[in-house]
Amino acid sequence: MQQKLSTPFVSLSKTCSLEFPELLRSLHLKQYHPVYFLHGPEPYFIDRIAAYIEKEVLDESEKAFNLTVVYGKETDHLQIQDAARRYPLMSAHQVVLIKEAQEMKSLPDLLSYVEKPSPSTILAICYMHKKYPLNSNFGKALKKNAVVFEAKKLYDNQLPDWISQYAKERQLTIRPAESSLIAEYLGAELSKVANEIDKLALNVPAGSTLTHEQIEQYIGISREYNVFELHKALAARDWPKTFRMIQYFAANPKKNPFVVIIGALYGFFSKVYMLHFLGGASDNELMEKMEVRNAFFLKDYRLAARHFNRHKTERVLSLLKDYDLKAKGVGVNTTNVPEGELLRELAWKIVHE
Predict the structure, then answer these.
(1) Nearest-CA neighbor of 102 among 155, 145, 43, 17?
(2) Which domain covers residue 188, as residue numbers?
(3) What stretch of H or E contains 125?
(4) Sign of the CA dihedral running 191, 192, 193, 194
(5) Cα 117 from Cα 179, distance rounded (Å)
(6) What is the mean pLDDT of each run of 10 residues along the chain (353 residues)?
(7) Which of 29, 126, 141, 293 shows a CA-CA span of 20 to 30 A to 316?
(8) What is the count of structural domains for the chain?
(9) At what angle are helices 258-275 and 339-352 packed, to 10 degrees?
(10) What is the dihedral angle through the alpha carbons of 9, 13, 14, 20, rounded to the nearest 10 degrees?
């Protein structure tokens, strides 16, 4: 006889698609669904949801008989159906978790199960690194009968806010300048960013407002030598300061990869270029059109716009494209010039041409 569920499933008719905070909140509230389909290019969000389902839905005494974790490459739809159709033992429900489901060749053959899932099973399917075609027959069944979550990559301008929110979850406060610095330094690999903030949370008292010194100490981002300071030096066409920073970057290539610096500079001068067409706009209008999250950063763009007119800004953007290709060896760096030398050469041209 099937056991009566102590935690009822929520109707899917109104909530077949949830955003990340909503989905985590519903799990915390024990508002479970029979089928979850997690897909998309950002693995961090899928990993967090899957980890919660695996670790928190069942208590330790229930997991031995009611938790099944499989990998897509090592299983097929028949094994999943058999596992999902079983009744839970001494528990309200069981969990079946498919990791790396994109490797499961017979995944679409779960159609019949998704159309009529077991009410006492929570089946979570983790389809990693890409979107699943939801206009397929299986995709349509998922949209109708499952909670479908698409894990989207964050845009660059969204990353600082995400960092601030994650720090808040870890009982830390981080100011816009520091969150933007971390975003530029660590990039958009969210699991890496989260690990570094977790490291800060272990070493800094809860409730603290993170300082630049703490970020430098525990993450390794130098207060004096970072891409934001390079932006400022170039914006002012300050060659002595620029040269000191370039020398530091060239001596520490692992911490300061050339392609990352190129990308950061291209983003900065792209906004300077936009500013030349938005001269009469208010700060709020500039922030919206340039996708700048805080008026604090506008002064650097304005300073650069004074030193680099529209024509010079176009020249800088062209230089950055050329040196990006040189760094990648795309037909233009046949002499294998070291990246540090390329960086010095590029900086000299930006400041002096």
Answers:
(1) 43
(2) 156-218
(3) strand 121-128
(4) positive
(5) 43
(6) 41 56 94 96 96 96 96 97 96 96 97 97 97 96 96 88 94 90 84 94 94 87 85 94 92 85 92 92 89 82 95 96 84 67 93 87
(7) 293
(8) 3
(9) 20
(10) 60
Residues 89 and 37 in one domain: yes
Amino acid making up residue 277: F
Q: What is the structure's pLDDT at 304?
A: 95
Q: Are 28 and 102 contained in the same domain?
A: yes
Q: What are the CA-CA distances from residue 147 to residues 20, 30, 321 (Å)? A: 12, 14, 43
CB-side exposure of 134: number of CA atoms within 13 Å? 18
Dist. CA 176–CA 192, nearest whole Å:
19
Give the distance, in angstroms, between the CA of residue 262 and the centroid of all CA atoms in the same chain.
20
Contact 32, 122 (CB under 8 A): yes
Task: Quote the pTM value.
Answer: 0.73
In the 3-class helix/strand/coil scheme, how is 218-274 assigned residue by residue?
HCCCCCCCCHHHHHHHHHCCCHHHHHHHHHHHHHCCCCCCHHHHHHHHHHHHHHHHH
CA-based max dimension of the chain: 81
CATH number of domain containing 207: 1.10.8.60
Q: Note whether 17 and 40 are within 8 A (CB).
A: no
User: Where do runs of H (alpha helix) occur along the chain?
Assistant: 20-28, 43-56, 60-66, 77-85, 111-115, 137-145, 159-169, 176-186, 190-203, 212-218, 227-235, 239-251, 258-275, 283-290, 298-307, 310-328, 339-352
- d(C-alpha 251, C-alpha 263), whole Å: 19
Residues in the chain: 353
Tell me the two tokens of residue 43: 């693995």
Q: Across-strand partners of 127?
A: 39
- Kindly list the distances between the CA atom of residue 76 and the CA atoms of 24, 70, 103, 311, 324, in Å, as whole numbers in the listed order: 28, 10, 10, 60, 44
Distant-in-sequence, close-in-space partners of 173: CB < 8 Å, separation ≥ 6: 167, 207, 208, 209, 210
Give 292's Cβ-side CA count (13 Å radius): 26
